[in-house]
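Notes, Module 5: Reading structure tokens.

Key idea: the token line is not a picture. It is a compressed description, and you learn to read it the same way you learned to read a sequence, by spotting repeated patterns. We will look at two proteins. The first is printed below with its tokens.
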Amino acid sequence: MSKPPENLSLFSDHVDPSLSDPFFFEGLARRTGYRLIAGVDEVGRGPLAGPVVAAAVILPQGCALDGVRDSKQMTPKAREAAFPVIQAQALSTGIGVVSREYIDEHNILKAALEAMRRAILTLAPRPDFILVDGISAIPLSIPQRCLKKGDRRSRSISAASVLAKVYRDRIMAAYHLMYPAYGFDRNKGYGTQQHRDALKQHGPSPFHRLSFKGVPRIDQGEA
């Protein structure tokens, strides 16, 4: 078989059959000649504290995962229940974690793309095509397709979103045990009123993103 074309224009957003077929984009990639299609997504761009976490998932052809949706559309209990099911049914899964130090040194977009890059690189076997949630390509030579709201349009990306969300929530729960004043177990690092009040009272923890608006900077006399 000849090498499949890498022209991303083969995929069109004008008509969206993925609304009725959650594996539409995976199937289209297979019909183009690709065999190992990974979905990748990240969580944690918006919080004031904690890492960015990404997950990558390669699902076998015929795998349904009917209960899996965009992680934001699932309850915490449903996500936790789906986590081991996805891991058991996937051909391969990978997690990428980027620290708040990396976020502060670079920026949140670069950190998110780096987390997705790391997640992809942990996959074995390595995918030959990637479906990416969002509009920014991952800095890898593997052919890929960016999908706006991909976590709602591709079951592979949905599965990745669940793994990333559960993994990050567990990290934030662990951080809560070290710094309970901020309520990380509830807010997951997002800027709730309780979290902002705690920042005003206690200043930032080692896990807070000092480059984010709303986080006091000790080196500038703000805390």
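Here is the second protein, with the sequence above and the tokens below, as before.
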Amino acid sequence: MFNKSVFANGVRVVSERIPNARTVSLGIWVDVGSRDEVQASSGISHFLEHMFFKGTTTLTAQQIARELDSFGGMANAFTSKDTTCLYSTVLDSKLPDLIALFSDMFHHSQFVDDEIGRERQVILQEISMVEDIPEDQIHEIFEASFWGDNSLSRPVLGDQQVVGQMRGSQLHSYIQGLYAPTKIVISCAGNVDHQELCQLLEPLWADFSWGSEGHDRLAPVAQRDLVQKVVSKELEQVQLVMGAKGLEITSEDRYALVLLNTILGGNMSSRLFQEVREKRGLAYSISSFIESYVDCGYVGVSCGIAPASINQTLAVIGEQFRLLGKEEKLSREEMGHALDYTRGSLYLAAENLESRMTRNARNELYFGRQIPLAEVVSQFEKVTVTDVAVLARRIFAEPLCAVALGPVQEDEVNWV
């Protein structure tokens, strides 16, 4: 059973009771992420996420870690382009303790200089790690090229120079300026009673009044002219990412987009996996993916290949982009397989409490309502071959952004 409450200050609480569950998954979601930063604060959202665990007015970082471990479950946090989240899955009997601890971490973190100095070094190492992992680095290069001057182009981890100078006063100003109650969703799934959940949360969350409701995100730039870029680097493989303008997360065509992505490169029977790996042996793995935000998005393809294979691989990818837009090349059998895969993925995710907690939070953040799983499945079942073909023609008619990272030169690449 799904329930929703809104406190007087605008904090939203959503919960889903799962019969027979003995655990609960709780997440505190904030509708603020790296895209809300300016260059001078690049990485501050991610820095805040780390600092929530580094001491409050009553608990040290070690005491927080010990208490989280004592719950016997798991606790973590993440920052994305558009959200920041603290979350944990614990035994249902530990939910009051978890709420008390997370609330303390959120409202009373001190951001003291000693802890900031230590965590700064951790984050700088995290940023440096990306350069040692080509599969990660290529995505940062691609997004910088794709989004241009918009804040979406900057990495979530932030700029090394900015992070190296981060101070506690900046963290306090940022959280109190942007973390408005209306931007917060507290989501819980499992063996939870909604009324009891609200009784635990309300004394801790109903009265705070940080932030400005008037904060507006920077509008994403319109898709630009074709961007094709080679970054030469001594590696064993060439990492390749290419993509085109996609859809916002609330688009009515989002169901067709998911099926299109599944057919293109979403699983082992997809066209790209079969054509690039299975038939030609050009890559160990190749996949397509969707990145969608509330107001924009893109569809991408990524793979790692031998330098000598880059042009053959590009030609195969380009051909599949074109073929997806032809209805006669899309069979009902292929659509049926994509639907079965998607439907199965949805139901499998529904077996996981963390996934259900996340789904409910994202529905509230992006749609302002619960979207029942049956409704989602029904919408997927309505998608036709024509819907997918029309959408493919629309997406892949857009200018493509493509980036290659590895031991190749610009004049060696024949872009599609």
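Summary for the second protein:
- The chain has a mean pLDDT of 94.
- The two ends are 50 Å apart (CA to CA).
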